[in-house]
Fold:
Amino acid sequence: MATQLWIDPLEDLVVGLKELLATLENVLGMDGERAYKRQSAKKWLPRIDPSRPSLPNYAITQIPSIIGKTVERVEFGFREQDDNRHESEAIILYFTDGSILGIDTGSNVGNIAHKYEGLRPNDFHADFMLTWVQPPK
Structure:
C-alpha cells in the first residue's frame, strides 16, 4: 500500500512536466526536442580564445563583412589538386548583393616538406571541421 502512495504522485509529476513543456512550446513557438538538439550541438562549436585576437593581416579578419548578407547559393567540395599544395576542401558563398566569399584552407606543409627530404605538400591533407547549429525556430 505504501508503494502505491509514491507511484501516483510521480505519475502526476510526469504528466505535469509534459503539460509544462507543451505550454512552453506553445507560448515560445518552439519545439522542445529541437531546442534540446540545438543546445546539445552548441557544445561542439569551437571556442575562440579571447586572449589571442587575430592579427589585422590575417584573412580571417575579413569575415565580419558577411554580417547582414543573405546567402544566395553555395559551392563546396574538394579543391582542384596540384603537386605543390596539400589536398583540401573549399567553400564558395554567393550573396544576393553580388559579393562572393571563398573559404579555402592553408597550412605550413610547404615549410615542412622543404625541411625533410622526400616529403611533398600533396603528401599532406587538410580539411574543414564545420559545426552547424540549427536556428532556434
The first strand starts at residue 71 and ends at 78. The chain has three helices and three strands. The helical segments are 2-28, 32-42, 109-115. The chain has a mean pLDDT of 86.
